[in-house]
Task: structure prediction
Amino acid sequence: MKVAITGTPGVGKTTVGKVLRRRGYDVLHLNRVAREIDALLEEDEERQARVVDLHALERYVEEWEPESDPAFVESHYAHLMPVDLVIVLRLHPRELERRLKKKGYSPRKIAENLEAEFVGVCYGEAVEVRSGGHPMRPPKDVVQLDVTGLDEDEVAERVLEAVESREGDDVDWLEDEEAQRVIERYLQYREGEGDEEG
Ligand SMILES: Nc1ncnc2c1ncn2[C@@H]1O[C@H](COP(=O)(O)OP(=O)(O)O)[C@@H](O)[C@H]1O
Ligand SMILES: [Mg+2]
Result:
C-alpha cells in the first residue's frame, strides 16, 4: 500500500519521513525525486517555490515498486499522487509560525503558509481530488492528524496507526480563536494586499 504524507510546508513531513525510513519503511521524498527525474520545471522567484511536473511524478509513483508495505511518499503535493491513502499532517498555526520563523522565511512567505494551514488547503485539495466530484462526502481514504505537541516519534506512531485504522482527527483551525489571532497578525502581508505586485 502506498500512502501519501502531505500538509503545509513546516508541519513535519520530511522529519516523520526520516523516522519512518529509520524504521525500515520505504519513503519517497518527492522533491528529491523531482530533481532526479528532471521534473523541476522552473523556479518561481515571486513565490519562492518550485514548479514541478506533476504528471512525470505521478508516473514515477505509479511505477514505483517499494519493498515495504506500507510505503510512503512525502511532499506538500503528495495528496495529488496515485496512492491508496492520504494522511494530512495538521499543525496549529501558532506552532507553524514558530517553525517557519526559525527557518528564516519572510513574513510574506510565513503569511502564505499560515493561511494555507488555517484554511486547510492540502486537506481540501485531497478531498476534492479523491471524492470523485462529491466533496460533500469526505472520502474514507483521506485522514487528518493533528500533530501539534507531538515529537517526531509520536508523529510516526500516529501515522502508522492511521494506516491501520484509517481514523484521524477532525481538525478545523477556522473556529480556533488563538489560530485566528495568529492569522490576523499576518493580514498585512497577504498576497495582493499592501503592495503593487499582486
Ligand atoms: N514533531 C516535531 N516536533 C518539533 N519540531 C519538528 C517536528 N517535526 C519537524 N519539526 C521541525 O519543524 C521544521 C519543519 O519540519 P519539516 O520536516 O522540514 O517539515 P515539512 O517537510 O513538512 O516542510 C524543522 O525545523 C523540523 O526540525
Ligand atoms: Mg519537507
The chain has a mean pLDDT of 92. Residues 2-91+121-170 form a domain with the Rossmann fold fold (CATH 3.40.50.300).
